[in-house]
Amino acid sequence: xxxxxxxxxxxxxxxxxxxxxxxxxxxxxxxxxxxxxxxxxxxxxxxxxxxxxxxxxxxxxxxxxxxxxxxxxxxxxxxxxxxxxxxxxxxxxxxxxxxxxxxxxxxxxxxxxxxxxxxxxxxxxxxxxxxxxxxxxxxxxxxxxxxxxxxxxxxxxxxxxxxxxxxxxxxxxxxxxxxxxxxxxxxxxxxxxxxxxxxxxxxxxxxxxxxxxxxxxxxxxxxxxxxxxxxxxxxxxxxxxxxxxxxxxxxxxxxxxxxxxxxxxxxxxxxxxxxxxxxxxxxxxxxxxxxxxxx
Length: 295
Known about the structure:
mainly alpha
């Protein structure tokens, strides 16, 4: 019986070591050594089996985690792929840069237009002011030098000629003389034509100014559209970066687990044991008890 067998063996530790002695006392020395070696062998096998079970359980858990993160990696990669195609983000960096460039171009064009608008506003204001103050002659002389103002230049020449003619007639005739009145009427007519030509120039500048206002407004609207597009791309870039980070994290974990699994060699656990024989039991043919001297 097991209880009887327990009374036959003893276990003693060796001081300051991890070694211990296992002794079995029996009427038959050979059987005693057989008991000791058998029990020790069974204990070693049990210890090895227990270690193998824990190792196998750990490996199963590791394999399960590898499969789980493999699926997580595939899901995350699929999310990144679908998000890119759904939002037309295959070349998102190129698109983002092109939008930025276009916004910069629109801002530059608006600045150029604004400079042109300010200069033209000053010119229009100056013309209006001089017309109101009846400084039409100096104004006309300034614009008569432009290539596209040949009519104005011709009118000024004609006005100068009529004025000279009137001055000559005024020497010889009284104010009510028909020749003097004719020259005076022609001068008035020419001057009115000059003023009409100046008003026409002013009107053209005003139309040009309105056109510049319109162009600037269109550029501003286009800039706002591209700015909204840039904001949307920024949001999509953030979302995409989050998805890519998640995919990268899952890939990193999967690679680490897979590498760890490939490095595990189960065979090193099947034979390794932290308990081993130093010396096997040998039969002792000298009686242990009873001690006849003491009895």
